Amino acid sequence: MTTANDSEKASTAPTFAPPSSAAAAKGTPSSRFSESVLGKLGVLLTRTIEDAAALEVKTYTSTSADATLADVDDPLTHNTRLRAFTRISLDGDTEHCVPMRDGEIDKVLWEVHLGMVKQAQELRDRTLATIVAAVQALRGHG
User: Which of 52, 70, 88, 123 is the most exposed place for a label (fewest CB within 10 A)?
Assistant: First the structure.
């Protein structure tokens, strides 16, 4: 998930620049197509790496999580309350906002939130592994 804070951070992700149009124009239609696809893949990989730099998980609660929420464009903007938040940067720096209830940690909600954090971390790990494999494959064919 990208937030306003992500856009303020300096990008340390490698940039995959698409080939220049002049270079593509010199090749065959097949090579121009391949270069175009590789250029688009490079842009996608760059955006994905930048997005993976900060993992954010937000847990909301609502008293009306029913068909009413399904009828709005973004159900997280109506009748919801942010109850738990976690941000984990790629270097491992972690920030948490722990849900409280009656002066104590809301253990049930916290466990639900931690389960979502674990799933998000696993997905980010798989995404980064896929990116590494794709870059290695591109280098092998370059």
Answer: 70
